[in-house]
Amino acid sequence: MLAAAPLVDKYSSHDWMRPWIPIALAAASYFIYACAALIVSQNQQNDFIPERSSIAAAVSNVAYGAPLGKVYAGVLARFLEMDVPLDKTMEQTARRAVPPGALLGSTSDGNGIGYIVLASVGMRLFGLNTSSLVLSMLALMGISALVFLWRFRDRRSVVVILYFTSLTVMLFTPLTWHRDYLLNIGIGGIRYFSLVAIVPGFHLLLEFADTPPCNFRLATTEFVAIAVQVVILVIAILVRNSAAPTIAAVAVGGWLIAWKRRREAGMMARTLRKTAYMATVVAAFVGLLMLSVSRSYLSDGRFTETLWHRIFLSYGVSPEWPFGNVRELYDCKRYIPEGIVPHSEDRNAHCIWWDYATKHNIPVDTAVTMTYGREYDKALREAFFNILRLYPGESLRAFFYYKPRFIVWSIAQSLDLKLAGVQPALIWLLAAALGNLLVFALIPLAPASPNSNTVIGGATALFAGFSTLPYIAVWALPHTTGDLLLYCFFGLGLAATAVLEKLRILLLSPSISEKQRIP
Q1: Lowest-confidence range among 76-80, 364-368, 447-451?
Q2: What Rg, from alpha-carbon coordinates, does the chain have?
Q3: Count of alpha carbons within 13 Å of 188, Cβ hemisphere only?
Q4: Which of 41, 352, 456, 497 is the most buried (most CB within 10 A)?
Q5: pLDDT tens for each residue of 412-446
Q6: Burial tier of 361 (Cβ tally within 10 Å: 0-12, 13-18, 19+)
């Protein structure tokens, strides 16, 4: 009589090396990307144009001793001299060769406090140079990845490897070689931080999926890991508000998982406990920042990025803009002679503000200092809804017809990979990143929970879907859709690794005769 032996995969035995394999491969993916990013950033001009005011505030804090968030007028003026190389300005301010001038309570660029805090910490750690901005971003990415691997040491580490592999591939897209794009999304710049939020988002969603119903207490690894990832996610959002939908995606995904498993005893209670803990960490960290920075950011409404400025400007994606008699409704010709014009020009929003200031008897000298503040955002919000009420058809076409087309166009533009003329070192690093991913797909590792692949795939689709919300609210361009582009590469890589894993199992599994024995 034939007796079936236990089905044992000879490649799944756990020796002492097995738990370290995903960690080693993930570390290699990070090291490859970090080297490639540093090479690319050194080749770029590192102008950091959208970040200049925030960098000036950070330098005022680190080199001149200003309170966190405040900025010296002389330092700010020097950093806004765009014809002077940023590295030269940084070197001068490091020697305090630039007269500081008057101390201002806050910056007025609409970028909020996030990048100022990050740049200040980065310059204290890595020095007063542009490289410190890139190194700060890489440090946050590395910490997030390390915490992820500390918590999930099985095949779920594919998230980290795919993340850094996708980032490496993105270094060959127009975001790094097309001048118009690279000036707006420099590595380590504000717009790059929508990418920093991705690993924390996956981590928090996998925490919900990994919730055992029988255990009501958070283990130490969960407790610490959740706190670190929440803090990094909040930093990313404060730097780049377009990362905020990550929170909504985590919440929706987490509660969908809980609802699916609602019949398991204690499942909903434990999910609620994790949700409450995450919210507490967010409140505590944001509260600490509020106590640490200049009070002007809170009183003037400059703590986060300007919101309605960008939403109002997005009317300009419509070829019908300006609608009807909008130009007559908002008269600013005394200050901006051309008034409201076609396309998404910043001066269109400034026109609304001057019209608002005139109607509300705000003195010119005061109105200038209020740009991108709370009252400014209020004026843009009122104008947006007034135009929506007066021209609903034109407004809906702008948001739900023209903007989605911009999303498709932006991703198509970004998929133009360039290998010709690239440094050989970068080509070798790209090959190493792809080879590292291939090794991960082909080597058997400790299995994750049975549904982890489904959760990661669903999370990718969920995060990608939610990442489009800012592009509907504002608009999509190649340099603003970096997170969606990464999700596209991530999804392709996830599908490829799943296929390779299936092939490995089919080709390397023992034969039927090896799975059975005769007693």
Answers
A1: 447-451
A2: 26
A3: 32
A4: 352
A5: 999 999 998 889 999 999 999 999 999 998 887 66
A6: exposed
